Amino acid sequence: MVTKATRDIYSGCFFLAFSILLYLVIPTQVETLESEDLTPAFVPETMAITIGLLSLFLLGRGVKNSAPGSDEQILQPNGLKFVAAVLLVTIAYVVLMPWAGYLITTGITLGLLCLIYGNRNWLQIIIIMIACPPLVQIFFRYTMLVLLPAGSIFG
After folding, report:
1. What are the tens digits of pLDDT across the range 117-126?
2. CA dihedral 83, 88, 89, 94 (to 10 degrees)
3. Residue ranges of the domains in the chain?
4. What is the pTM of this model?
């Protein structure tokens, strides 16, 4: 029987191990110069530390809630369908990104994910599909100084 507490414990352990592995792998994958104040490894290291701290919180919550009498089941019969649908949409997103570009694939992916998770408000879905990708692209282009893929169909 899977309960919320056991799920939190397993997830916390998994993400803690992932964050430690990520933190240990960063120096071998990111080239830095010692004279730099803000190295290219700063963001990955910060992410690894943040994931580690949040996983410790999740692990602690699972241990705290694993007291006897808290046997709330979370395994739902339709849960596997949602996981499979999100996985398929994510794989399609990654495969289509180089061809169709960031704006189109992200808009379509957001719309599909809204539908998968039960949102049937078409106006809201269309607004999300049209407004979110350009806002994120503007943020990455002008704040993070990263160009997102335009797609090969656009030249």
Report:
1. 899 999 999 9
2. 120
3. 4-64, 79-154
4. 0.59
